[in-house]
Design a protein that fits this description.
The chain is of the alpha+beta class. Helix content is about 30%, strand content about 40%. Strands 1, 2, 3, 4, 5, 6, 7, 8, 9 and 10 form a 10-stranded mixed sheet that branches.
Length: about 200
């Protein structure tokens, strides 16, 4: 017995509709999945952009103190002491390093002097047998978040070759050169040994 053509037509339409429904459903699912992937990728991209912006902000914040001069070296209490005899004059000062990075003092110069050399005075032995020894230095370490002091009995700079007489009450420019920080130029007051008292508040400059 042959099937009724109308039944076969209805069956074919039903099968077609079912197939089309499944196809549309699959298409919808694929479109949904693609949108989900795009959204996920967009979220990841947004997260990456946010992380990059955050990292850039952290770097800028880290560099801000240096840009504003917060970590710049400062030189205070700079004095040039006239020798009592024909010996060399000496220079004392204090270097203050507020930053977290240590540095090194490489040299000191002045247009009024032909030479300035770094030295350290040390004491060997004790009592009557104690001896004072002076050693030349090529550089001196500047501690992080601390001070480096040039004072009697320790570090000092010896000056030689004045172009013109330097007398009490004068002032001269000193330029300190460092390994990392920019050079610092300060004005040193000219004093005699009798004038100099590192403990006096008046020595602060």
């Amino acid at each position: 017995m042959r099937d009724d053509p109308r039944t076969q037509s209805t069956t074919r339409r039903s099968h077609c509709n079912s197939h089309c429904s499944r196809t549309r459903c699959c298409l919808y699912i694929r479109v949904y999945e693609q949108r989900t992937l795009l959204l996920s990728a967009g979220c990841r991209r947004a997260q990456v952009i946010t992380r990059v912006r955050t990292a850039a902000a952290v770097v800028l914040i880290a560099l801000l103190p240096s840009a504003c001069g917060g970590d710049a070296l400062r030189v205070t209490n700079a004095v040039y002491l006239i020798p009592a005899s024909d010996g060399p004059a000496v220079v004392y000062f204090t270097i203050r390093n507020p930053g977290a990075t240590a540095d090194t003092l490489i040299s000191i110069s002045s247009p009024a002097l032909s030479g300035l050399s770094l030295h350290e005075t040390t004491q060997m032995g004790s009592g009557l047998s104690a001896m004072t020894h002076m050693s030349p230095l090529s550089r001196v370490a500047v501690p992080a978040s601390g001070d480096l002091t040039f004072a009697p009995g320790g570090y000092h700079a010896m000056a030689t070759g004045t172009g013109s007489p330097i007398v009490r009450g004068d002032s001269l420019a000193l330029t300190l050169t460092f390994a990392k920080h920019a050079p610092v130029t300060v004005t040193a007051r000219v004093l005699t040994y009798a004038d100099y008292d590192p403990r006096a508040a008046g020595q602060k400059h």
